[in-house]
Design a protein that fits this description.
By secondary structure, this protein is α+β, with helices and mostly antiparallel strands. It is about 40% helix and about 25% strand. The chain has three domains: about 90 residues, no CATH class; about 90 residues; about 120 residues, no CATH class.
Length: about 325
């Protein structure tokens, strides 16, 4: 999914057939300084972010491929013969354009969180406490209204709102209005995280190693992270997640001794797992997953947890199958 501003574009629905794309950028670099050009076709879409000096980043996807960076920029600039794109131009403030240009690298960590179980204000506080750098994508009611909340290292740095007047607006008033609208008309939230460069390297290193305990710990960290967010931002947000999880691990220690907190082999804190025991991958995963599902059932939120874990299940489908575990 291509993320673009929610405000009305400076100009929209230009047909690429009549455009010289390179000259289009030259014109709007001088006209508005910084912004984004959105390309839309029935089977493909993309965006290129720019400032007054250069094209900063791009993202392109169709039914077969996804491209970022220069490869995406080249594909769209040279696309006249392949796609009958409609083109829209958005103005983005200079102080925000570099954040926007980072969005193609963002990874969705939570999807389809609904107001039925999750409070937007609580979700914002949760993401702030976790020092998130990324954004929350908010769809209100039937989806005709919505907004984007930009967060850098836990601090809200701006936003983009469908009722805006043409350029992103960081005002507190608009954020409060967005929260109020989700309370009145319900809403759906997606949270995406922009990894820092060191984290990208670490992620690539982990992905290069298959079927190891390191992969399993990463998988379980993400599972418990989703569970913690569902609890702390939903109807059970007054519950101390760490305490109830620790209690559940004590109960599970009868079958999975490594979960006994007093053994000091397994610890979950700050959405990170520390493990120093001898349990194999299958036993480790089974113990944590069974404990999480059991606790969710006791809290009366197991269906919601399973729903919010859909993307996690898809991501680790092969890993879970190799361990003989179903969620």
């Amino acid at each position: 999914m291509v993320i673009i501003p929610r405000e009305k574009p400076v100009i929209e629905d230009l047909n690429i057939y009549y455009l010289k794309i390179k000259r289009l950028f030259e014109h709007y670099q001088g006209e508005i300084g910084s912004g984004g050009v959105f390309f839309k076709f029935h089977s493909a879409e993309g965006v290129i972010f720019f400032d007054k000096d250069e094209l900063l980043n791009g993202y392109f996807q169709d039914k077969d491929i996804k491209l970022t960076g220069n490869a995406a920029i080249d594909r769209m600039i040279e696309a006249e013969d392949d796609y009958n794109f409609s083109v829209s131009i958005f103005k983005i403030a200079q102080e925000e354009i570099y954040f926007w240009a980072s969005l193609p690298s963002a990874k969705k960590i939570y999807r389809d969180l609904s107001t039925e179980f999750t409070d937007l204000e609580g979700l914002i506080k949760k993401m702030s406490s976790e020092k998130l750098t990324g954004y929350i994508d908010v769809s209100i009611g039937d989806g005709k209204e919505g907004g984007l909340i930009f967060i850098s290292n836990g601090e809200i740095i701006g936003g983009s709102y469908s009722w805006g007047r043409g350029e992103p607006n960081p005002s507190k008033k608009n954020l409060e209005l967005l929260i109020e609208k989700t309370k009145e008309s319900s809403g759906i939230f997606h949270v995406s995280r922009i990894p820092m460069k060191s984290e990208q390297v670490e992620s690539e290193q982990k992905e290069s190693v298959s079927d190891t305990a390191l992969d399993t710990l990463t998988m379980l960290e993400e599972l418990l992270g989703v569970f913690e967010t569902v609890v702390s931002t939903g109807k059970k947000k007054n519950i101390d997640f760490s305490s109830v999880l620790r209690k559940k691990f004590v109960e599970s220690a009868e079958n999975y001794s490594f979960l006994d907190p007093f053994a000091g082999e397994f610890e979950y804190s700050g959405q990170k797992i520390t493990f120093s025991g001898d349990a194999g991958e299958k036993e480790l995963a089974e113990g944590v997953i069974e404990s999480a599902k059991g606790l969710a059932e006791e809290l009366g939120i197991l269906p919601e947890l399973i729903n919010y874990l859909s993307s996690w299940t898809d991501k680790y489908e092969k890993k879970l199958a190799s361990l003989g575990i179903s969620v």
